[in-house]
Amino acid sequence: MGNTHSFRADKLFSGYDNKTIIQGIDLEIPKNKISVIIGANGCGKSTLLKTIAKLIKPSEGDVTLDGKAINKYPPKQLARILGVLPQSPVVPEGITVADLVGRGRFPHQSLFSGWSKKDYEAVEEAMDFMNITEFANLDIDELSGGQRQRVWIAMALAQQTDILLLDEPTTFLDITYQVEILDLLTSLNEKYGTTIVMVLHDINLSARYADYIFALHKGELVAEGKPSDIITSDLVKSIFDLNCVVIQDPISDTPLVIPKGRYHVKS
Amino acid sequence: MKNQSVEVNFIMQGMRQRRRRWLFVTTLLVILAVVLSSAMLLLGNTIYPVHIVVRTLLGEEISGANFAVNTIRLPRMLAGVFAGFAFGVGGYVFQTMLRNPLANPNILGITSGSSVAAVFCITVLHTSNSTISIAAVIGGLATVIVMYLLARGGTFSIGRIIIIGIAIQAMLDAVISFLLLKSAQQDIAGAIRWLGGSLNGSKMSELPPLIIVVLLFTPIIIIFGKQLGILELGEQMASSLGVSTDRLRIILIVSSVFMIAIATATTGPIAFVSFLAGPIANRLVGVSSSNILPAGLVGVNLVLIADLIGQFAFEYRFPVGVITGLLGAPYLIYLLIRMNRKGEL
């Protein structure tokens, strides 16, 4: 399994209204890998993700998929390759889980076509993968935050794209659900070879789950590479302005950042 | 190991069941609309039996019945059916597109935009009915354009659109009052009757624009209904699923404003129908797929029921807008209280 899409950004500048946040970033997303964008609040990680997701138009530079600028693709065709889960999607009032997941099939359906067998199978597979089949006919409002997030990811899975972008998929979730979501995304990557790019807040979970890290500071890409290669106390100091010690995670052998504050430091 | 095929069935069954409910309720709404339309033709000062009504409709000359049925009752019924449908669909589209039950053509001032244009035609220009229709459409569209331009910022904001819409409505209503104060005594009665929303005095000759616009724009709106369901998931989700959100909004807004403005020009703004139809349809049918058709049918039934009540339930005959107003106002208050409790206001 795996896909061979080349997905990259060149000399990317972007932001909101007249404020430029992303200051000339070049990057290539590694194929079939999980990449995580990290950085302090306001460094532009969400803006970068939204720009490569075509949710924000870059003021300069290009985002290209297989050598073609993403804004040159017909929208539905792009949506069959590139899936995006924004930070705060809206739940229509009263909708059931299965119907919401089913809306992920939109890019595969034409203006007049009804539901094909393939559509049902994709919905079933996505729901089974995210362990939400039992909720199929429930109202979304009846679910917990963690369950709800699984529904949204299932919707993105039903879209059956080779690349999946997620904007802080674990925010507002308890630690149990954070790990659950990241595990599910990892199995998705292993099973289908889906290229995953996400923004995460937690640097330690990022270090554990990412194959590749993009570290941002004030709209610029300051480091990229495998977590074990780039996450050092110097990097953390420079992008988060935080003193820390980096040790080895006893579970995964990945870097583990131990913050050093003003108090509770043994002498 | 889980049994795959059982799970497919479980999911599919639920989805199919919801689709069957949609079909079942929609059929019931059609039947109810047919029953009410027939009642509109049968009932009146003289109650004619079915066979007489059918014969007059087929063009036979039956003294008395002919005038009552073909000249009075038929246009009244058709105006109610098509205007009710237009208000229902237009209201549903706006409420769904802006994801807020308050966001309907009444509250956003689109109906008022049409009304200003129509009242200006009635009291100042003394124009024909067809000019009033055209003016109402232009007034409605102009209101939307102004609202859209004023609400324009970096990104599309629903809250901003709604607040600006409410402000525009207040302003336009003031213009209507001003026009009425300034107009000649003999024009005021006509304008007021029109503003109240009434099927009284509907003439066959006034109906073609309304019927054509409804038949033309309803299929367009239904075709884009699936995309409207995606737009409901939020701006970003919709565009990442491949919907061109700006283009979709323009198509839907233009289509529904045309329907609402023409309906407004024909019957006057029948209060609250566009506000009530969508939520009632969603409640009856569920929200699994697009409820454009059910909302239109609820609109038809609301207008016809309200008109029948207005004609026959009291000693004095009330225009349809008074009855729908009585039905709609409590719902608006209920909605405001509920939204306030949930902190959505």
Automatic annotation (TrEMBL), chain A:
<dbReference type="InterPro" id="IPR051535">
    <property type="entry name" value="Siderophore_ABC-ATPase"/>
</dbReference>
<keyword id="KW-0067">ATP-binding</keyword>
<keyword id="KW-0406">Ion transport</keyword>
<feature type="domain" description="ABC transporter">
    <location>
        <begin position="7"/>
        <end position="243"/>
    </location>
</feature>
<dbReference type="GO" id="GO:0005886">
    <property type="term" value="C:plasma membrane"/>
</dbReference>
<dbReference type="GO" id="GO:0006826">
    <property type="term" value="P:iron ion transport"/>
</dbReference>
<keyword id="KW-0408">Iron</keyword>
<dbReference type="Pfam" id="PF00005">
    <property type="entry name" value="ABC_tran"/>
</dbReference>
<dbReference type="GO" id="GO:0005524">
    <property type="term" value="F:ATP binding"/>
</dbReference>
<keyword id="KW-0472">Membrane</keyword>
<keyword id="KW-1003">Cell membrane</keyword>
<dbReference type="GO" id="GO:0016887">
    <property type="term" value="F:ATP hydrolysis activity"/>
</dbReference>
<dbReference type="InterPro" id="IPR003593">
    <property type="entry name" value="AAA+_ATPase"/>
</dbReference>
<keyword id="KW-0410">Iron transport</keyword>
<keyword id="KW-0813">Transport</keyword>
<dbReference type="InterPro" id="IPR027417">
    <property type="entry name" value="P-loop_NTPase"/>
</dbReference>
<keyword id="KW-0547">Nucleotide-binding</keyword>
<protein>
    <submittedName>
        <fullName>Iron complex transport system ATP-binding protein</fullName>
    </submittedName>
</protein>
<dbReference type="InterPro" id="IPR017871">
    <property type="entry name" value="ABC_transporter-like_CS"/>
</dbReference>
<dbReference type="InterPro" id="IPR003439">
    <property type="entry name" value="ABC_transporter-like_ATP-bd"/>
</dbReference>
UniProtKB/TrEMBL annotation, chain B:
<feature type="transmembrane region" description="Helical">
    <location>
        <begin position="158"/>
        <end position="181"/>
    </location>
</feature>
<dbReference type="GO" id="GO:0033214">
    <property type="term" value="P:siderophore-iron import into cell"/>
</dbReference>
<feature type="transmembrane region" description="Helical">
    <location>
        <begin position="132"/>
        <end position="151"/>
    </location>
</feature>
<keyword id="KW-1003">Cell membrane</keyword>
<keyword id="KW-0472">Membrane</keyword>
<feature type="transmembrane region" description="Helical">
    <location>
        <begin position="250"/>
        <end position="272"/>
    </location>
</feature>
<dbReference type="GO" id="GO:0005886">
    <property type="term" value="C:plasma membrane"/>
</dbReference>
<dbReference type="InterPro" id="IPR000522">
    <property type="entry name" value="ABC_transptr_permease_BtuC"/>
</dbReference>
<dbReference type="GO" id="GO:0022857">
    <property type="term" value="F:transmembrane transporter activity"/>
</dbReference>
<feature type="transmembrane region" description="Helical">
    <location>
        <begin position="21"/>
        <end position="43"/>
    </location>
</feature>
<feature type="transmembrane region" description="Helical">
    <location>
        <begin position="316"/>
        <end position="337"/>
    </location>
</feature>
<dbReference type="Pfam" id="PF01032">
    <property type="entry name" value="FecCD"/>
</dbReference>
<feature type="transmembrane region" description="Helical">
    <location>
        <begin position="77"/>
        <end position="94"/>
    </location>
</feature>
<keyword id="KW-1133">Transmembrane helix</keyword>
<keyword id="KW-0813">Transport</keyword>
<protein>
    <submittedName>
        <fullName>Iron complex transport system permease protein</fullName>
    </submittedName>
</protein>
<comment type="similarity">
    <text>Belongs to the binding-protein-dependent transport system permease family. FecCD subfamily.</text>
</comment>
<feature type="transmembrane region" description="Helical">
    <location>
        <begin position="106"/>
        <end position="126"/>
    </location>
</feature>
<feature type="transmembrane region" description="Helical">
    <location>
        <begin position="292"/>
        <end position="309"/>
    </location>
</feature>
<feature type="transmembrane region" description="Helical">
    <location>
        <begin position="207"/>
        <end position="229"/>
    </location>
</feature>
<keyword id="KW-0812">Transmembrane</keyword>
<dbReference type="InterPro" id="IPR037294">
    <property type="entry name" value="ABC_BtuC-like"/>
</dbReference>
